[in-house]
Specification:
single chain; about 230 residues; two-stranded antiparallel ribbon; Endolysin_T4_type; lysozyme activity; hydrolase; antimicrobial; bacteriolytic enzyme
Length: about 230
Amino acid sequence: MVTITTKPVCQAAVDLVKHFEGLYLKAYLCPAGVPTIGYGHTAGVKMGQTITADQAEQLLLDDLSDALARVDALVKVPLNDNQRGALSSFVFNLGAGSLGSSTLLKLLNAGNYDEAAGQFGRWVNATVNGKPTRLPGLVARRAAEAALFSGAAATMPSEQPHPMPQMGNAPAGAEDDEVRAIQRIVGAKADGAFGPATTLAVKKWQFLHNLEPDGIVGPLTRAKMGL
């Protein structure tokens, strides 16, 4: 871990990351098979682990502080709070190596702020079935980061849903039936419990259908599922 910067990441960047990561209080396997918890936290996470919302908040702030320190180490030109926050979200999502090798960083360090802002939109692909695939969720996230970097409001898409319950049985009735329907579609055990196994199955299904693999059955995923 790098030395933590003394100046915290701006609240707009914190809100942006929260929006796109979603909150998970029980550890689950991400599509890459990495145990993950909270707002996309992976360091030291073990399956079966649970945390509180307050702990998730602190983990996120620590992770973003680390990302911000990496940004400050790579960028050689002055940045305002929004620019630093946007780049911290970028690093949090893609890693410092991606920023370090990017045309975005080269343009930025040459003082070409506007051209650098235009580079966010190039980082919208994920590998699906061995092929680079453009994912709508990454398109939306990069657009929000670019807007924040440029000083505009980092508007998040209104269709971004809240996560479905991750553990425990869904209430009996229509919701229970819908969870079972989702489980049948993604090939999970149709037990009505939207737990980590179902979340992982949903993420894999989303990967295969060119959707953001966030494990959230929101409007875009529901439409693709025919629900």
